[in-house]
Design goal:
Blueprint: E1 3-4, H1 11-15, E2 18-19, E3 34-36, E4 61-63, E5 76-82, E6 91-96, E7 101-105, E8 115-116, E9 130-132, E10 141-143, E11 163-169, E12 172-176, E13 182-186, E14 190-193, H2 209-214, E15 270-272
Length: 279
């Protein structure tokens, strides 16, 4: 993938950068692997907004991605590299020898015609291959890592992401996360070799409010800019500080930097936490 700029005919286009889609080999998705995506506008079954700043956006289909990689020991050929509007990474359409078709999150530099394999045994260390983390040599980058065996990939699925295997000892493998956190994962968990595709996604600038609306993101307003009736931070003449002991949400709960991790059973699996003083 590459990043491109366009002629600055408007203030929004002057700041914007775009994906050139040079790595895409097919424009339409596989019909058997898509379902309609229903929109909620951030509302629950009662019609109440539970997630703010959502609404509108372009229509899209959900591509059904195989995060489990559970077709073991059946070689699959990469038929196409495709765009997925629901994620930053590219997806790859695999044609298995038994006739099945599945989408996977594509790694960097995967090309059409390559063969990939998933197995519970040790296989070649090649991008796109999936196997238990216990067979991965130290220092190799992997993605789509499970937290529990058979659960399906949970860690490192976003564009450009990967985690490093630091070693295997006893029942667990040590994994270094992108945040710097080091944690233990069951050595039987499946992972895929490589780094998630489209690492340049982070460099794209939307440039205009309209592009945010096309993504289904509605405007976000600062609490300080509101009236006291609308937000605890509101009120005052001119630009005022928050003026409270600690920042609050519109509903009066603590906000901005509040620790949210409480009594998690997985604390025992974290060897080194990310950053300083975080929990």
């Amino acid at each position: 993938m590459g990043i491109k700029k366009v002629k600055s005919t408007t203030p929004g286009r002057r700041q914007a950068t775009f994906d050139d889609f040079s790595d895409i080999t097919r424009s339409k998705p596989e019909k058997s692997l898509i379902i309609i995506k229903k929109k909620t506008g951030g509302r629950n079954a009662q019609g109440k907004i539970t997630i703010r700043h959502r609404g509108g956006g372009a229509k899209r289909y959900i591509r059904q991605i195989d995060f489990n990689r559970d077709k073991f020991d059946i070689p699959a050929k990469v038929a196409s590299i495709e765009y997925d509007p629901n994620r930053g990474a590219r997806i790859a359409l695999l044609n298995y020898r038994d006739g099945a078709k599945r989408y996977i999150v594509a790694p960097v530099d995967l090309v059409v015609g390559e063969e990939v394999l998933s197995s519970k045994n040790q296989i070649e260390i090649q991008r796109g291959n999936a196997m238990p983390v216990k067979y991965i040599p130290a220092g190799v980058a992997v993605y789509n890592l499970e937290l529990e065996p058979g659960q399906g990939g949970r860690i490192a699925r976003g564009a450009g992401n990967s985690v490093s295997v630091m070693g295997v000892e006893g029942k667990y493998a040590q994994i270094k996360m992108p945040s710097g956190e080091i944690r233990l994962v069951n050595k039987e968990c499946l992972c895929t070799i490589g780094q998630v595709s489209n690492p340049d996604k982070r460099h794209i600038k939307l440039g205009s409010a309209g592009r945010s609306r096309h993504l289904g993101i509605r405007p976000t307003v600062r609490g300080k800019a509101m009236n006291p009736v609308d937000h605890p931070h509101g009120g005052g003449e001119g630009n005022q500080p928050i003026g409270l002991k600690h920042p609050k949400t519109p509903w009066g709960k603590p906000a901005l930097g509040v620790k949210t991790r409480k009594n998690r059973y997985s604390n025992k699996f974290i060897i080194k936490r990310r950053g300083k003083g975080r929990s």
